[in-house]
Amino acid sequence: MNSQMVLYEEEYNLVVGICDALHRDASAKAVFLVDKNGQLLAASGETGDLDTTSLASLTAGNIAATGGLAQLLGEKEFAIQFHEGERDNVHISLVGQRVILVIIFDQRSSLGLVRLRVKKASVELAGVFETINAKAQEHGSTVFSEITDDDIDNLFGDM
Fold first, then answer.
1. Per the domain annotation, does 4 fall within a domain?
2. Which residue has the higher pLDDT, 149 or 11?
3. How many CB atoms neighbour CB 51 within 10 A?
4. Who has greater pLDDT, 116 or 156?
5. Tally of structural domains, the chain
6. What is the pLDDT of residue 143?
């Protein structure tokens, strides 16, 4: 599970569409999809004022730390987390044991609405990631499997 994920263009577009729909349907401020390594995969909504790189890294760290806490308590993991702030709230959930769905929302929405919409989006996202895993197995497990020695020579030949 710690390997880099290859996100193909077709599936990337599906993921972005699901995040856009979740943003709209949950009346959220922003929606992020992050892998467990802390890499931002997709974002939707009001993201301009946020340091998305830090948000992705901290979210992955939060999931890892909470996983340790879950193990101490005899749980496999805590699949859903909720953080309530004065202005903004954060709902974090694991999708398909591989990616983290982060929803930032304020008074325009409610925890109940976010949870309802996350359930639907999680099912859709899990399906997309099953397709991605199948494609990765079909095309080999490495990102570099299609790169030839000639490709490398052409890239670095002028050096």
1. no
2. 11
3. 10
4. 116
5. 1
6. 47
